[in-house]
Amino acid sequence: MRTEFLLLAIYNKPRLNLDETCLALGMxxxxxxxxxxxxxxxxxxxxxxLTADIRDVAEALDQxxxxxxxxxxxxxxxxxxxxxxGEAP
Length: 89
Description:
Elements: H1 2-11, E1 15-17, H2 18-25, H3 29-38, E2 51-53, H4 54-74, H5 79-84
Helix pairs in contact: 1-4, 2-3
């Protein structure tokens, strides 16, 4: 829910165009078009010009964040992290 409010504060509108959606998701516009064409887009988009509901963008961001959090939990800490945080290797 906080992600949705953050996006609303940044963009001040309920629908984002393709450029804004890609920027929020951290991908290039070209990649956004490619994912959309291949049916791999993390956010449903419709209309002309293509737009996405800000709630869908926020949900996609939350899912990406959770996926990264899970991946970090599964990966063992590196020697550099151990040194930086005082753990013995």
